[in-house]
TrEMBL record, chain B:
MF annotations from Gene Ontology: ABC-type transporter activity; ATP binding; ATP hydrolysis activity
Principal subcellular localisation of the protein: membrane
Subcellular location: Cell inner membrane
Keyword terms: ATP-binding, Nucleotide-binding, Transport
Membrane topology recorded in Swiss-Prot or TrEMBL: Peripheral membrane protein
Domain of life: Bacteria
Protein's name in the database: ATP-binding cassette domain-containing protein
Similarity comment: Belongs to the ABC transporter superfamily.
The ABC transporter domain, residue ranges: 17-247
Length: 579, 365
């Protein structure tokens, strides 16, 4: 790694050499090496193994493309591939239909409750999509609430949840906040003068929107849309739970779990998944390049907000209410289900009970405990690594420090199912002294979660450190503090808010993660909440307790998200007061 | 450059702008209070005042981005008060330039013409002419982010004049440029305005900018037009203390105008009395106003009034020396030309101050 970077900096060999000797203390060097080893062991090698297996012949280890030919010749895989592409693309379309009106109405008009909408818009994110899937079946399925009522009143049904439709609907409802958040931010970042200049030159109404506002908001939209595409493409649990098997991620999982970890097809599919992730991110990066369109001036406001006419207001409130009802449907359905005795072939449950909660608190509490333990450790690993990498990148001149950043961020492009397969393959051969394979230990689940969430925690820590002026540290050193003591007494306290935010983000998202863990969980006693939910939701009898567990999961994550929001706000206020 | 720009008909078609009794409040904040102004055809006119005085609000009101609570705006005799911005034909150059980052320079300049459904060939010709006029024809295919601040400013001007507006509005167009560029660009702006003969309104808080390029200035403060006049009129005959203070340095000496034995005198606190012309009105709280260069130390002119003073401090300003002189209880600034070798007054030395009463003013407080 170091060799590669020195080559990259060959234009100034003497300078980088001097920096290496002068600016990197032995402690920093050791820290960097430690991180590099961690990332190599738990990210680079497992993923490398997956790619290696996909390109080698089973048994001999010789390079071959036969596996990919097999993939291309198998109808099931090709159909799965196109199904995945179709579902992902349609999810983007449907999610856009939800997000566009909400973003537009709340940023462009004086709209009562704009804040509420933006907050409610986050809610779907804090629930695993497959949990919502069950509730959606009950509400929108063939014999769900909506279709029963439609059939009673008008004599027809709408196939919301049939086959791929169901996956698209559930995924769109779950992931539309990514588009909402990015698009709203992009719209808010357009300076008022952009619009006024166009008006001044004779433009107005829809033409103005099409020629000025829309192109300026485009990069934000593409960023959100590509994220939705990748997430849907990689998701494993939702299609499985809706009994849709001919999509790529489920196929990878099914190959490995039913035929075994030696079968190359699971690895080939993994490589395809990685390629599609990278492709989507590349397209998004290309669309964004040179288009930092944030045009808001200092002291200037965003787009001017217009007051709506009464009829516009009525239409807007109607649309917003309908969309909110739709995207919050999984939550509502889950809550009903968790209190329901029997809910089948009827618009609403027959009767209500607390028994499911009793059962969850009795026998299934191990899931909650496991989740708290796993997510906490994963979050801790993430902020320690994130802070260390941010410090090395921003505050030292260590050769190759950017590689740590890139490697950690690269985890974004690795689907959970791929990481899971990589861990199984890499660590199954590694045995502990008593003979148990490393891959079966619960700590592998934690490591997978930590690697998966590292990019998010890293960005939070990075941003926190970036906001601290170097002169604050120089002042401490000038007054006699060593580098280590400066970090401890100045840098860490000032970063605390950002680190905490990073921890909570990692914790909250790790708590509902399933795609990597589904591969790695070996026994029920080691299983986290999301796995327990998955098991419960597969049997009709388990749906009640599963829903109760789901409500607990949602509350848990909501609490954490709320806490992180409070912490960030408080630290920002403290900083503003100190200024 | 030698190709005549279509609009340049030497100002024969230029029109006037009439602002009548314009009133505007944001809630309890009364931003514009009964503004009346007449901007003549082809005139380069400035709204000058400190930040928050309402000058930008007034400009945006002419462009149609703010709406008056009362009064009206007439452009070329036509009341535009109820027209939306896109129907007003008043071109505005924004303080931030507001160039659209997703369009090239050429597309930016063509925008207004495209909105007016001008034929393609005509658009090409006029965009080329506008860019030629500001000297940026070679950068037409760049993006705004690839241009320097000065170039961006010129693109913003080209984009505005390409639509041949009836009036050109400039909102602090020089404030985002460095000091050197500012001097160059303001000359270019003046030059351009003269060639196009375009009625132009310029908003600034910088008196030097306004003085150097504008025909007339409206000094504004607190939502009220304090005075309208040419730069020289405002400097020599400020109507009130605000204008006197805002334009250049002014000595403002408080005192009383008294009458004694048929003659008028001005009593400065601290026992200094000077004879003054008989037309000055009697007042208990008057202000004597004069510029630092309208008084001298040591030798006064023939009709100067002599006052006793004490040097407090001195500042070397390059071409001039500025002395702080205590006269009675008041302290005034006196500029004397700097000549090398000439002896300087030391702080504490007593001097005679010669004041030219013809240049002095008496203002009510």
């Amino acid at each position: 790694m170091a060799g590669a970077t020195t080559a990259g900096r060959a234009h100034a060999p003497s300078r980088s050499l001097r920096h290496l000797t002068i600016s990197a203390s032995p402690g920093q060097l050791a820290l960097a090496l430690g991180i590099a080893v961690f990332l190599a062991l738990f990210l680079v090698i497992p993923v490398g193994t997956v790619i290696y297996v996909a390109f080698t012949e089973k048994g001999t280890g010789a390079f071959t493309l036969v596996n990919f030919l097999d993939f291309a010749r198998t109808d099931l895989f090709i159909r799965s591939f196109w199904n995945s592409v179709y579902v992902s693309a349609m999810s983007v379309v449907v999610a856009s239909i939800f997000a566009l009106p909400l973003a537009y109405i709340t940023t462009r008009f004086e709209f009562r409750g704009a804040m509420l909408i933006q907050t409610l818009g986050f809610l779907p994110l804090i629930m695993p999509p497959f949990v919502g899937a069950v509730a959606m079946l009950l509400l929108f399925g063939r014999n769900g609430t909506v279709n029963l009522l439609l059939n009673d009143w008008f004599g027809f049904r709408i196939p919301f949840m049939e086959g791929l439709n169901g996956v698209i609907f559930v995924q769109a409802v779950h992931y539309f906040p990514f588009i909402l958040i990015n698009l709203s931010a992009a719209l808010r970042n357009i300076d008022r003068s952009m619009e006024e200049a166009a008006q001044n030159l004779g433009s107005s109404g829809f033409r103005l929107f099409r020629r000025i506002v829309f192109p300026l908001a485009m990069p934000g939209y593409i960023a959100g849309a590509s994220l939705v595409f990748v997430k849907v493409f990689d998701d494993l649990a939702t299609p499985l739970l809706l009994n849709v098997k001919d999509m790529l991620a489920p196929q990878a999982y099914l190959r490995v779990t039913s035929i075994g970890i030696a079968d190359p097809m699971g690895y080939v599919i993994s490589v395809v998944l990685i390629c599609m992730s990278i492709l989507a991110m590349w397209i998004s990066a290309r669309a964004m390049r040179g288009k930092d369109y944030a045009t808001v001036q200092r002291g200037g406001g965003g787009l001017s907000k217009r007051r709506m006419r009464p009829w516009e207001s009525a239409v807007a409130y109607g649309a917003v209410l309908l969309i909110l009802l739709l995207v919050l449907a999984p939550h509502i359905g889950l809550l009903l289900l968790s209190f329901a005795t029997i809910w089948s072939f009827s618009p609403l449950p027959d009767a209500y009970t607390l028994a499911h909660y009793g059962r969850v608190f009795g026998e299934s509490f191990v899931y909650v405990k496991n989740t708290l333990v796993y997510a906490s450790i994963a979050g801790l690993i993430d902020v320690v690594l994130g802070t260390a990498i941010a410090y090395l990148v921003l505050r030292t001149r260590l050769v190759g420090r950017e590689w740590l950043d890139w490697a950690a961020t690269a985890a974004l492009a690795i689907p959970g199912v791929v990481l899971g397969i990589g861990y199984l393959r890499t660590f199954y051969g590694v045995q502990l002294p008593d003979g148990t394979p490393l891959a079966t230990l619960w700590i592998t689940i934690v490591l997978a979660l930590a690697i998966r969430r590292l990019p998010y925690a890293l960005r939070a820590c990075y941003a926190a450190l970036q906001q601290i002026s170097v002169s604050l540290e120089e002042a401490a050193e000038n007054l006699g503090a060593t580098k280590v003591r400066t970090v401890r007494r100045i840098v860490l306290p000032l970063m605390a808010g950002g680190i905490l935010a990073g921890f909570v983000t990692s914790f909250a998202t790790a708590a509902v993660e399933l795609s990597a863990t589904l591969m790695l969980v070996q026994s029920n006693a080691d299983a986290p909440l999301a796995y327990g939910l998955y098991v419960f939701m597969q049997s009709p009898a388990g749906r009640g307790p599963g829903a109760a567990l789901g409500v607990i999961a949602v509350l848990l994550v909501a609490l954490c998200t709320f806490a992180s929001h409070l912490i960030i706000e408080k630290s920002q206020k403290a900083k503003a007061a100190g200024r | 450059m030698n190709q005549p720009f279509p609009v340049a008909s030497s100002g024969a078609n230029a029109i006037d702008v009439d602002i009548r009794n314009v009133d505007l409040s944001y809630g309890a904040n009364h931003v514009l209070k009964g503004i009346n102004l007449h901007i003549r055809p082809g005139e380069f006119f400035a709204f000058l005042g400190p930040s928050g005085c309402g000058k930008t609000t007034l400009l945006r009101l002419i462009a149609g981005f703010n709406h008056a609570d009362g009064g009206e705006v007439l452009v070329g005799g036509r009341n535009v008060s109820h027209l939306p911005p896109w129907k007003r034909d008043v071109g505005m150059v924004f303080q931030s330039y507001a160039l659209w980052p997703h369009m090239t320079v050429r597309r930016n300049v063509a925008f207004g013409l495209e909105e007016r459904k001008v034929p393609k060939a005509e658009i090409d010709r006029r965009v080329a002419a506008a860019l030629e006029l500001v000297g940026l024809a070679h950068l037409a295919d760049r993006r705004p982010s690839q241009l320097s601040g000065g170039q961006q400013q010129r693109v913003a001007v080209a984009r505005t004049i390409a639509i041949e507006p009836k009036v050109l509005l400039l909102d602090e167009p020089l404030s985002n440029l460095d000091a050197k560029m500012r001097v160059q660009v303001r000359r270019e702006l003046r030059d351009l305005q003269q060639r196009l003969g375009l009625t132009t309104i310029f908003v600034t808080h910088d008196q030097e900018e306004a003085n150097t390029i504008c025909d007339r200035i409206a000094v504004m403060n607190d939502g009220v037009v304090q005075q309208v006049g040419t730069p020289m009129e405002l400097y020599e005959k400020p109507a009130n203390l605000f204008v006197a203070n805002f334009l250049g340095t002014a000595n403002i000496v408080p005192g009383r105008v008294v009458s004694e034995g048929g003659a008028r005198f001005f009593d400065i606190e601290g026992g200094v009395r000077l004879p003054i012309p008989a037309h000055v009105a009697l007042s208990e709280g008057a202000k004597l106003v004069f510029r630092p260069q309208h008084a001298s130390l040591g030798k006064g002119g023939a009709d100067d009034v002599l006052l006793p003073g004490t040097i407090v401090h001195s500042e070397f300003l390059g071409s001039t020396l500025r002395y702080g002189v205590k006269v009675g209880a008041a302290e005034v600034s006196i500029d004397t030309p700097f000549q090398s070798g000439e002896a300087l007054y030391q702080p504490g030395s007593a001097v005679e101050l010669g004041l030219s009463l013809r240049s002095a003013l008496w203002l009510a407080s």
